[in-house]
Description:
It is built from seven helices and twelve strands. By secondary structure, the protein is α+β, with helices and mostly antiparallel strands.
Amino acid sequence: xxxxxxxxxxxxxxxxxxxxxxxxxxxxxxxxxxxxxxxxxxxxxxxxxxxxxxxxxxxxxxxxxxxxxxxxxxxxxxxxxxxxxxxxxxxxxxxxxxxxxxxxxxxxxxxxxxxxxxxxxxxxxxxxxxxxxxxxxxxxxxxxxxxxxxxxxxxxxxxxxxxxxxxxxxxxxxxxxxxxxxxxxxxxxxxxxxxxxxxxxxxxxxxxxxxxxxxxxxxxxxxxxxxxxxxxxxxxxxxxxxxxxxxxxxxxxxxxxxxxxxx
Length: 263
């Protein structure tokens, strides 16, 4: 894999020409940015910023996006700021406009053909594909235990994908004695070479036993079966070292900048 060429391909296919990530949302080009807009429980935000954007043009674009989302009554939206985005001062401009920076993540990409696809689970653990509301409840329980966050929005988004667009989405939960201990998702992007890994998290008492690696291997196998060339992840400091050991390479960093109109 050639990192610079792969990053350029990622920017073009996954950001500039982004597809909606679920039913009921839309993606559109608004001047120098590409954004997604949906309801309050959907992901809303800017996914791409035009190369060569000047500070003055960036300030105008930031103001326009704030006006766009607040006019719709949305309580928050995100601006995904990649380290290689222009202008270099974009982060400072977002902060000055009222955005708050979340912890940065690493953009990791691997060639699917280079990844191990043999699933090795600890004794007593099994994987279950999520296909219905009961499975979603198990997945959300694992997510909430792993990350310590409310899973209401995740529940809405997964149920919407299963009902409206199941062919481009995979949801998984790992169970130990019937209890959910880990969960993960994979977004498939037809017409591109990329599939995305999202939401991988394991409850604390099961970490370090290979559950996360098994979820990656299972999704890599599915991506290979469906003809995808790359797997991509926005990885936290917790998951990035694991993914690097599995064969992923860092192409950039991404910082979520959040604009909130409600506490």
